[in-house]
Predict the structure of histidine kinase.
Amino acid sequence: MTAPRRPAARRIPARTWFDFATVLVALILYSVAWPTLFVTHDVSPAAAPLLSALAAFPILFVRVNPALGWAISAGAALLFSIAMQPAVDNDLPFQVVHIIVLFVLLFAVALRAAAPIVVVAWAATSMLFATTMPGSQSGPLWGWVMGFGALALFGYLVRILLASRRKLERQEEVTELERARRAILEEKARIARDLHDVVAHHMSMVVVQAQTAPYRITDLDPASRAEFESIGATARTALNEIRGLLGVLRSDGQLPEHAPQPRASDVPTLCASALRAGLPVDWTVTGDLASVPETTGLVVYRVVQESMANCARHAPGAAVHVAVAVDPGEVRVSVHNAATATVSQPGAGGGHGIDGMRARVVAVGGELHAGSTLSGGFEVSVKLPTH
């Protein structure tokens, strides 16, 4: 079954929507500037479309190049104030549409352009308005200077705020990525330590058997004795190399020979300990847990341990049921919790518990399934080979 496709409108980038809105606003401003130009200024009908376009269309540069749009709009405003004659009842040198466009473009320059360009745009716009607007005969209009200065300063502060937020978001993404990588590396190192401890045990047994073979088996010829000595030496070398490699991974200062690993037979003890700690857990065991191999038994123990931790973390107070069944050739584990009002999906908080369990299970050739139950709880079920 294919995933549902999002509506086409949602797939359009926000930048494209902004461009559509800008074009629409420009057309609206143009439709206002053209007919009102004859009311505010004495112009010929042939020149009106071009003059209205110079007043309204520079806003189209608000995203792609606001400094260029501001320069065109400011230059056109200066030209209008010099070459165009206002109507009798109008004392503004250029249209209100032109003023709106200049305001918008100056704010966009403060948001997007370099600081020197922002200062130049603010100074030139303030000078333009101070020298052309009504009242300039009595001196510069400092109100325009302060007003445009406040607008440019506000735009620049918004720009700094947005830049800081983007930088913070990028830093949070990097931090989250590093946290995830660290969790994965720690889980891999933990699996490596577990595998080392199991392999080291068996290799130690190989060394002991090879060294004691000449004393347990009578009538060995010299070639056989030399072969057993070679096997023992090779096993000791391999064991030392494994311990040296683990020393790079181990960060807790604990030596592998001092860290015995749990077995499947320790699962009831684990459940009892969780029950004493306050987790409402019950468990059933079918078959002989002692017959489960060490490697598989370690995975069984870790799966139960991590699953109960997930239950306590994501469904506090919910009853937890643990079932372990040992059958010929395989062992099955099931851990599920009942639904609660505060239940959340394991892994929703950014953890890697299920991924770590799956890595352990796959490493020994097993299968893991995790998901919600029909009753609203969550279940982890595992099948592991025992041969």
